[in-house]
Here is the input.
Amino acid sequence: MKLNKRNAFSTLEIIASIFVIAVIFFVCVTPMMQNRIKNDNVSLLKKSYAELFQALQMAVGENGDISRWGFTGKFEDRKIIEQKIVPHLMLSENCLDKAGKCVPLRNYRTLGNKYTTENLSQYPAFTLSNGSSVIFEFLHSCRNTDNVCANVYIDINGSNKPNIFGHDLFVFVMENSNSILLPYNNKLTADELLNDKIEGCSKKAITAKNCAAYIYKNNWKITNDYEW
Here is the structure.
């Protein structure tokens, strides 16, 4: 009696099939997942920025131009933020008088996944109701025209990882010109925002502080030339 041809897969064939499926999954699904993360991050960043922008404008309407608010460029300026801006926001946690709260204790990393010298835990902060932490680095008295009163960092998921510039941390500036909140280095061209060796939105840069401005200039989108 003749044996029938085998109709079952060998172990080697099964392993090969699993490998092919895994490759297809990685090639097709991973980019889709990354795009979803990018879109979600930008959406949350845009929402947090809009809340802060609106709160600042309401504070200006009540208290006049921020050049007259009494900024000194020191940690004590947190009291001004608490008195004039916080009342117009919904917070889940107020850490303005508790340096080291609402902010990760370790240094943030670059887009190239290297640690920077940027440790924001020394600065006053608060967490919005959507989970974004807002950190204030006060710089100047803000009396002179076009002074930057403070760098304003938005970490869209608070102390949670990945804690990377351009992924979940983005930088804005509070200027006394028109009392406005704008992305850091917003006056640079798109090419300058990407290719600056120190703050450019790329894996080669030291801090990637320009990423918020690049997203802003691209109508709140992370484009293909954004090194994720």
Observations:
- The CA atoms of residues 79 and 123 lie 13 Å apart.
